[in-house]
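$ ./design --mode recover --in tokens.txt
reading tokens...
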């Protein structure tokens, strides 16, 4: 059975940061909810949950290019269809996961290898080699995900 909704990333005026809207294919209608401060073409993409009940994307708190915090402190979040984007749950971020020693400049990205995976993969994005973590897919419902190292960059 195919997906009945699609996520569309929209940007304007040569901006890199975008908004995501959800389109219902059978009714050809758009959800009234707009997910703001995303950059799916540059950071993290859009990843549907295996049951199609929502999606995971990377949220960018500060999108003002003149701010010293521009594109810092990103968070990989889960958005459930029908909910307000303001209620999105953070799954992976510097603030949410201090035990991982993430930096403000790190891009926090989560994805599935494919839709039948039993694990989430969290990637610390940025320039150069990356750290990767994993957690069972069913841990999405936990208050906080306990990420385990998959492999780490080696800096000497």
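writing sequence...
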């Amino acid at each position: 059975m195919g997906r009945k909704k699609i996520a569309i990333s929209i940007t304007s005026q040569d901006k890199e940061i975008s908004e995501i809207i959800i389109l219902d294919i059978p009714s050809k209608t758009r959800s009234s909810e707009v997910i703001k401060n995303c950059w799916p073409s540059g950071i993290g993409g859009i990843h549907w949950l295996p049951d199609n009940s929502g999606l995971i994307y990377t949220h960018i708190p500060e999108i003002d290019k003149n701010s010293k915090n521009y594109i810092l402190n990103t968070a990989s979040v889960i958005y459930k269809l029908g909910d307000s984007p303001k209620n999105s749950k953070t799954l992976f971020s510097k603030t949410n996961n201090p035990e991982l020693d993430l930096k403000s400049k790190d891009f926090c990205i989560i994805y599935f290898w494919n839709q039948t995976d039993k694990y989430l993969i969290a990637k610390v994005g940025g320039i150069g080699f990356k750290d990767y973590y994993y957690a069972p897919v069913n841990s999405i419902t936990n208050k906080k995900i306990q990420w385990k190292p998959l492999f780490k960059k080696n800096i000497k």
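exit 0
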